[in-house]
Design goal:
By secondary structure, this protein is α+β, with helices and mostly antiparallel strands. The protein contains 7 helices and 6 strands; from the N terminus they run ββαβββαβααααα. It has helices at residues 29-37, 88-99, 111-118, 124-135, 139-149, 152-176, 181-195; strands at residues 6-10, 17-25, 47-52, 59-68, 79-86, 104-106. It has a 6-stranded mixed beta sheet with strand order 3-4-5-2-1-6. The protein is elongated and about 85 Å long.
Length: 196
């Protein structure tokens, strides 16, 4: 991955709510937590913190903060979550404070998922399953999306890939050793078995 910026975005739905989740991912994620809600929480544990503007010291909210050091995070990078109250003023205050930290910028749509894909945390079928899960409207769609996001389609494709590699190896052996009667006779049959 070439982009070394730290990205942040509102991860929960738009509009007023009881809780809003703001995610931060990248090399300055830990610094952002230290500057806004020190000290850095224990990895993968929620900690109740006062969230402050790093420039003015103004209290923005009292909320939960979570810390996920790389590579054991959704994106494979250092990652943090601010689980703040869901009012617009709180959300805008926290987003503005994050934007004031050098190296931090607002994420583009789908950028967290792109980073997870680039860092090997998701494969393309998992990304598609995640998109399907967000769009799921029925329980059947939800179940299918969870299976796909969980790797069921990847495992199917990977099995096909290995069978095709096996068939190609048999065919290549038949071509390379066509002058050896025992090898040439059995390779085409073995190749067919691989792909059936």
């Amino acid at each position: 991955m070439t982009d070394q910026s730290t990205i942040f975005a509102l991860s929960s739905g738009q509009g007023r709510a009881g809780v809003a989740v703001i995610r931060v991912s990248g090399p300055a994620a830990g610094e952002a937590v230290e500057r806004m809600a020190a000290p850095l929480p224990k990895a993968r544990f929620a900690a109740f913190r006062k969230i402050k503007d790093p420039a003015s010291g103004e209290l923005l909210d009292e909320a939960l903060v979570l810390w996920f050091p790389a590579p054991k995070s959704e994106t494979g990078e250092d990652m943090a979550e601010f689980q703040v109250h869901g009012g617009r003023a709180v959300i805008q205050g926290v987003l503005a404070a994050l934007g004031s930290i050098e190296g931090c910028r607002m994420a583009e749509p789908g950028e967290f998922t792109r980073r997870a894909l680039e860092n090997g945390k998701l494969d393309l079928t998992g990304v598609e399953g995640l998109a399907d899960l967000v769009e799921a409207e029925t329980s059947a769609q939800r179940r299918q999306a969870l299976r796909q996001a969980g790797g069921s389609l990847f495992r199917l494709y990977e099995a096909w890939r290995w069978r095709l590699i096996g068939a190609m190896a048999q065919l290549e052996a038949g071509i390379d050793f066509s002058d050896v009667p025992d090898v040439a006779a059995g390779t085409l049959k073995k190749a067919r078995v691989e792909v059936e």
